[in-house]
């Protein structure tokens, strides 16, 4: 029998450690209580701000029900990203990845209510950013808005909030298994405010300069996917490679069923993402629903065929990843193109994203671990540019014709929107990580070796 002697000095160290933790807990309780009290007191100055006078006859119950349902579908996509990514990483990091998506869901939800929504959809300032007139959702109530005339302004706000939430969640795939948690928290807040919110205003906000130029982005090809994809590339370069990274060597996925489950939930939620962007239970939402499903199917089959040709086996993970790439590509075009065009978009985007992943992994030393740049960045680029080719005004009178339908100018506008978005997101993201580097961008080597599940969160994904 082996016994461990506990010396008086070790007992003192343990007691001191417990005392420090208790003091830290007490300080956190006090700080959070103060924040809660301040928010509670401030609520008197926002009394009625989320209600307001409205004409009940102006609200369409069917449209409202559909947009709220779509918002819930998009919300499910954020933890679905966690499962999709979580299945791809090593078993010692699966909890950390899913946890990060839930952190972002909570963090950006609050940021969006306090300031994010106002920066995107508030009164335009020079075509660059929204004002603070909707700070704390002041004036965002039951009455419809200029953006959605048949549903409460609050419904539009919460639907758009789900887009703001999922965008930074997509980025985490580029630096899984090595990011320092506290740095991630600060980065998400800064990135959402300084990168996502301005880009979203440029494209979707009344008065936004890309919006005024006529750039078409029905559900977020530029705003969500290009911004996240090129932010992921910048993050991978700023943070550096994982320990043991080998060029051309794929990450050993710990749970393929998780990947397939995540992809299936993303496919399901994407109907809310794209069809919900019609902001009404309308024929346009039906069209967006159909082309979303069709493009995903075409890209899934494309990736399956390419993986079959490369590896002599039709990979399940490749098929699932291809579906996601097709969903990414159809997103900006979903409200402007027909079913046959969506097949073309799915196939072309499937080829582009597969080749970009191949080139990144085989010919560069960039450790974009889960290929956020290839799937979302280049998938978004492909879809946004092809919107300028296949868009039809006959499908959406609020849109425009593309190159194939006699309007080459739209193609040029799409290319400009793509270039501006990717350059801004890449540069600002890289700068943010450099500014945050004194805090430490990545965990210590021993924590990376142990795995973030235990080292950071103290929880295991599997107990076999």
Structure, described:
A hairpin with a 3-residue loop joins strand 1 (124-125) and strand 2. A two-stranded antiparallel sheet has the order 1-2. It has one domain: Orthogonal Bundle (Ammonium transporter fold). The model has no long low-confidence stretch (mean pLDDT 94). The protein is mainly alpha-helical. It starts with 7 loop residues before the first helix and ends in a 9-residue tail after the last helix. The protein is built from 15 helices and two strands. Helix 11 (339-363) packs antiparallel against helix 12 and helix 12 packs antiparallel against helix 13 (408-436).
Task: Give the topology, please.
Elements: H1 8-42, H2 61-88, H3 94-121, E1 124-125, E2 129-130, H4 153-171, H5 181-204, H6 209-213, H7 221-239, H8 256-275, H9 283-311, H10 316-330, H11 339-363, H12 372-390, H13 408-436, H14 445-450, H15 452-455
Antiparallel strand pairs: 1-2
Helix pairs in contact: 2-3, 2-4, 2-8, 3-4, 3-5, 4-7, 5-7, 5-13, 7-12, 7-13, 8-9, 8-10, 9-10, 9-11, 10-11, 10-12, 11-12, 12-13
């Amino acid at each position: 029998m082996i016994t461990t002697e506990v010396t008086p000095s070790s007992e003192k160290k343990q007691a001191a450690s417990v005392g420090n933790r208790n003091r830290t807990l007490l300080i956190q309780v006090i700080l959070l209580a103060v924040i809660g009290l301040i928010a509670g007191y401030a609520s008197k100055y926002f009394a009625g701000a989320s209600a307001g006078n409205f004409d009940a006859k102006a609200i369409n119950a069917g449209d409202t029900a559909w947009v709220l349902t779509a918002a819930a579908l998009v919300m499910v996509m954020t933890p679905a990203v966690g499962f999709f990514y979580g299945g791809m990483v090593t078993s010692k990091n699966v909890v950390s990845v899913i946890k990060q998506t839930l952190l972002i869901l909570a963090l950006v939800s609050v940021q969006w209510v306090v300031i994010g929504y106002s920066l995107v959809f508030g009164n335009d300032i020079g075509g660059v950013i929204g004002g603070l007139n909707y700070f704390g959702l002041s004036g965002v109530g039951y009455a419809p808005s200029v953006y959605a005339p048949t549903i409460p302004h609050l419904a539009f706000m919460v639907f758009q909030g789900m887009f703001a939430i999922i965008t930074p969640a997509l980025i985490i795939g580029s630096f899984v298994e090595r990011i320092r948690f506290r740095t991630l928290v600060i980065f998400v807040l800064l990135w959402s405010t300084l990168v996502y919110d301005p880009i979203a205003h440029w494209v979707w906000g009344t008065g936004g300069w890309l919006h005024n130029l006529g750039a078409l982005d029905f559900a977020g090809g530029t705003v969500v996917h290009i911004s996240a994809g090129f932010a992921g590339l910048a993050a991978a370069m700023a943070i550096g490679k994982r320990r043991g990274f080998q060029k051309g060597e794929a990450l050993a996925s710990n749970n393929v069923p998780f990947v397939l489950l995540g992809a299936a939930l993303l496919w399901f939620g994407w109907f809310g993402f794209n069809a919900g962007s019609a902001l009404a239970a309308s024929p346009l939402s039906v069209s967006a629903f159909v082309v979303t499903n069709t493009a995903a199917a075409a890209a899934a089959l494309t990736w399956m065929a390419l993986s079959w040709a490369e590896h002599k086996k039709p990979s399940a993970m490749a098929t699932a990843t291809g579906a996601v790439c097709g969903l990414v590509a159809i997103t900006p075009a979903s409200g402007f193109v027909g079913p046959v065009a969506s097949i073309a978009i799915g196939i072309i985007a499937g080829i582009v994203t597969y080749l970009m992943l191949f080139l990144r992994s085989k010919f560069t030393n960039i450790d974009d671990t889960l290929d956020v740049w290839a799937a979302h960045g280049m998938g978004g680029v492909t879809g946004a540019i092809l919107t300028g080719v296949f868009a039809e005004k006959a499908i959406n009178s609020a849109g425009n014709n593309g190159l194939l339908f006699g309007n080459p100018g739209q193609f040029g506008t799409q290319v400009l929107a793509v270039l501006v978005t990717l350059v801004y997101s890449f540069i600002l993201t890289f700068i943010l990580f450099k500014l945050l580097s004194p805090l430490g961008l990545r965990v210590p080597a021993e924590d990376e070796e142990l795995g973030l599940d235990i080292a950071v969160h103290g929880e295991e994904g599997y107990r076999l």
